[in-house]
Amino acid sequence: MEKEGLSVSMFLDQVKVNVKAGNGGNGMVAFRREKYVPDGGPAGGDGGTGGDVIFVVDEGLRTLMDFRYNRHFRAEHGENGMSKGMHGRGAKALFVKVPPGTVVKDAETGQMLADLVEHGQKAVVAKGGRGGRGNIRFASPRNPAPEIAENGEPGDEKEIELELKVLADVGLVGFPSVGKSTLLSVVSQARPKIGAYHFTTLVPNLGMIQTDDGRSFVLADMPGLIEGASQGVGLGIEFLRHIERTRVLLHVIDMSGVEGRDPVDDYYTINKELEQYDLKLRERPQLVVANKMDMPDSEENLKTFREEMEKSGEEVEIFEISALTRKGLNQVMSRTADLLETAPEFPLYEEETGEEERVLYKFTPENREFMITRDPDGTWVISGDKVEKLYQMTNFQFDESVMRFSRQLRGMGIDEALRDKGAKNGDTVRLDNFEFEFVE
After folding, report:
1. pLDDT tens digits, residue range 265-288?
2. 421: containing domain
């Protein structure tokens, strides 16, 4: 797609999708009625389990483009139970392929659910509901012929946010037009778009680097950063997240100053943006790559740069290169490979998420057994995950099931809670779309 002279690559690295696991099948109320079987008794089977929604890593994918037009994923429901004690068939899981480097979050709470990085790695993002029990399960000496069966448990339904963080060992950072794309193109087989204007690079480009001594690593060219990128200015904020994955940073600086910028200011500005986005990025090993050393004024600018670094106490390794003439490239790539041998791997979800962060999502209102509010018309409203699930799993066609549901509500303390809130005999109470009268 061409627009104003720019080739806009189809790259999608953040998207929201809706996932719905399958409901469990309903249990059945049935009785044996064979001619020669006296006192046949209950024979209703259980429903089958609903299908899970599972994300699985496919190393052949590189973007989230597959989710651009398909944002709803539904697993199948379990089969209903049958007579003669036969259980319903469980539904198959729905597998959804995602590229390596995908972070899965709950869109509502922001809680991270999975960090998928390796080919074949799987994560259950929505759990299928269990099958409802048939009346054969409720038989007892006191009630040998129960007319009770459960509906299937509803499957999980969630809004999921997918965020792709490119998997690369080394990231190229720097202002636009400092030569990052040119550098990537001459040290690897990658062919990024190169142009004599800012923001030629609109998407991260990856290249495989092979050093003279046989070591290899993946190098990523990120779109240029500008001042304010960490607050959303320019294109950089969209791709700062990809730098989180890298283990070593190559800070490319245009030492010629042909763009009218000061190399020293460029160095401090870019590092400030990295620090404001994520303080951990400043802890990554970083090499300064002084590019365009074949240009006039580069030597003088580099001398001033070194003096400023010494004066400020900054300990930096500086490599002089010219991406255009390929001068000094072998040295910087070899030193980068050295750093990778000791640099830690990027932190996975389990390592970077402490116990305190997980607790934040543990006691939200949605996870309480029930909550009681009152509408303007005076109707008492009962809500909550557990009580709503009990309601959905109750088969209201049978009086015994209704009576069991009433006992369950009483056992949860809902009657007492309504009374404490001020509910009077005859008040209307609503649970989901089911209304009943409060009875003292």
Report:
1. 989 988 888 888 777 777 889 999
2. 371-438
